[in-house]
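Inputs:
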Amino acid sequence: MTERQPDETLPDAVTTWPHLVRIELLATLAAMVLLTVWSIVVDAPLEEAADPNRTPDPSKAPWYFLGLQELLVYFDPWIAGVMVPLFIILGLLAIPYLDRNPNGAGYYTLRERPFAISAFLFGFLGLWVLPIVIGVFCRGPGWNWYWPWEAWDIAKTPHLTNINLTDLLGIPASLGGVLVLGWYGLALLFWLWQRKSAGLQRLGGARFAITAFLLLTMAAIPVKMALRLLLNVKYVWVTPWFNV
Amino acid sequence: MTRRPSLWRQFYNSVFRHRFDDTPRNRLLQITSNVFLHLHPATIRRHGLRLRYTWGMGGLSFLMFLVTVVTGVILMFYYRPTAAFAYIDMKNLQHEIPFGMIQRNMHRWGAHAMVILVWFHMLRVFLSGSYKAPREFNWGVGVILLTLTMLLSFTGYLLPWDQLARWAITVGTNMAAATPFLGHQGPGAGLTGVTERNDLRALLLGGPQVGDPAILRFYVLHCIFLPMIAAILMIVHFWRVRKDGGISGPPHVDEEPRPGRAPARSHGFRPKTED
Ligand code: HEM
């Protein structure tokens, strides 16, 4: 057997035993102490037995899905509960193939990849964590807004006079589709305008199209929220089969 | 003539393949001759040790997975997945069974911790740019692990069979009923003709609403199917971390030609230094 010498001679390499294993042991002990104390101090919830005839109000999904449930205020379930999670998973899977920036691999830097990092943090913090915080702390009966310090027995009625965007603008409902497709058409305009730029050259058509679709879909979420909150818009696009 | 080894020495040698005095050789054997520690390379770049770099999040996610596996098996001894017994069994766990409450608490809070730790692990991998070539595939394995972690939590949520459980799962699985073409409330349901008895939600729940068959389905998914897939993918994930050149690091460490440095796609072992 050829013997391997430890690489302590190399400035960058150390033996895994004991250097890494020691850290793992200490981290394990610390985490187990924390988890044990947490489990002694706080009991897991157990409410009354399940009763199919008594629906609690509000009925909340587990906290890690409350971001999606919060989107139900603004979108129909097939978008908030099906398409959005699907695009999140597919979008995450696609990230390494879309990001062609060679810088910033293996170290923390905002300066060398400002766009990638802002886009990711916008999605993670703004579209995932923030709605969860709202769903956990600020939603009460009827999914109305209750501050954490507000009692839930104050009756609140939601604003019910919502209107479709096409009616608000006084244009035929079929033009709603034009609005939605036009939103994604922005990508095409951007491509025509900037296609000679170094950034888009590096991406190429296929990567650009996918990236633009994902980013515009992400950006559409706060746009729809703003339309609802400021103008009481219910749908942008109404069809006999689905509404957006 | 060789001396006859003592019974003790023979037994010791049959269990441990080497001695434990702190020699350079034994430091390597500690890792390479131990099936569990062998997940690691025998030597590792100093950079990959820094908690400021990895935040230790991947390792702690794995620890929380192990905690839920162990406490979960213990809970399984006391839990029957039917509407008649599930809730009573939870009550018994809490009030009758010695240490039942803390098993349940550690399982519950460990699972919640795992969800958060996995999110933060993903965040650190993104911020350190560690998904870039050659680690694209392992990022993908991670995304599937993320999905599985949340599905594991979600399927477990139903099992206590209290009001919280039943209605949270009702809200969650109602989304499946809204799936285009496959859910009876989704767009295109008219085209495929699915009803509340045979759409995607019915497949998940074993019926049109959350009841006995749903408990059994979620139980099997939660205790067998999802953990098995997750365990297999974790093995792939850890293996790929090594195959892709170990924990990522800045290129000035990565690329500087240095005698004896392993090429990026080796097992992380370095050829013997010539000197
Ligand atoms: C059950 C869930 C997971 C477990 C147990 C896990 C475990 C680990 C461990 C132990 C490492 C070694 C380095 C470290 O601790 O940071 C690692 C690295 C890595 N993980 Fe995960 N992981 C999980 C989920 C994910 C997710 C959700 C992603 C991304 C979407 C991901 C992507 C990666 C990548 C790309 C590396 C290599 C990082 C590098 O070389 O710097 N993993 N994982």
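The CA atoms of residues 44 and 149 of chain A lie 23 Å apart. Flag for discussion at group meeting.
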